[in-house]
Amino acid sequence: MKFESVTIKDIAKVLHLSTSTVSRALRDSYEISEETKKLVVEYAKSVNYRPNPSALNLKKRRSRTLGITISEIANSFFSQIIAGVESVAQEKGYNVIISQSFENFEREQEAVRNLSQSVDGMLISLSSETKSLEHIEQLQDRGMPVVFFDRITKSLEGHKVRSNNFKGAFQATAHLIQNGYTRIAFVGNPDNLAIIKERKRGYDEALESHQIPPTEAYIKYCLHGGLSYDEVERVMEELLQLENPPQAILSCADKITTNCYRYLVKHDIRIPDQMALVGFSNLDLTEFLHPSLSIIQQKAVTMGVQAAELLIQQIESKRPVVDFSEIVLEPDFFARASSAPSDPGK
């Protein structure tokens, strides 16, 4: 037997009222007496009446759905951001649709195009391959609210939520220098991403502030952000084959950090005695590795919460939003065994 939910017409028939009176009573309209409102609301509760979300959304021409485009859900940083987004969405009565680019520009374009047909607004973190922003600009031109988070762009207007990437990289690099490491490699996503430019700037300025000349051979970029272990393996081998290989690595992405650590362990390279390692990471288990991993940890859940709040505010604004915010969250630095002063005698 097919389940049929209670409708406004059903309530009106039982209470001998018009459907418009019932509808207005359920919306707490001033046009309806308190006595009638009480009668309607109590009966609606007793029969477990629920408004039809599809009908409401058609009326308002809204789907009450947010779209989010990220590189990969399996990345702990992005999964924590999603948790933050969904906590706000649930509280505000929105659903969330998630799409992954896997660091591929064409997949990002397809994701944005598909999501735009069924969402009220979009949260976007750019892929490593993204250089053209035409697909997002077209969305904004059509009035789609867009909030950029983490991998933001300076080229387009919109609310933005990111970490203080410069500070995180500067602090980690300075920490390595203070612990006696002067040959420090920088490994990151491609530098077309604003976050990598900022992390590189933090790395450069930390070296400069300690009078350490930069070494171009120590700068490495992973096109797909370390998504593949092979990509990081190639970079590690290039670094270790140098005449003066680095003593330490600053890794600038979650997956790169994980795979650098994996490579060192796999090849029996002692951490930190033969190679120190500090990386951006939001993995929960970094302190329980052996040796424990020094990390720059971003406030991912907070980033998701604030990005979602800004997007919903923009969606629900009765006027076009022309003043945009850029929220910068301070990362946390945890110095652990992987970047302790080396002891070559061990």
From TrEMBL:
Keywords: DNA-binding, Transcription, Transcription regulation. GO terms for molecular function: DNA-binding transcription factor activity; transcription cis-regulatory region binding. The keyword DNA-binding applies. Coiled coil: none annotated. InterPro entries: HTH_LacI, Lambda_DNA-bd_dom_sf, Peripla_BP/Lac1_sug-bd_dom, Peripla_BP_I. SUPFAM superfamilies: lambda repressor-like DNA-binding domains, Periplasmic binding protein-like I. Residues 6-60 form the HTH lacI-type domain. Pfam families: LacI (PF00356), Peripla_BP_1 (PF00532). This is LacI family transcriptional regulator.
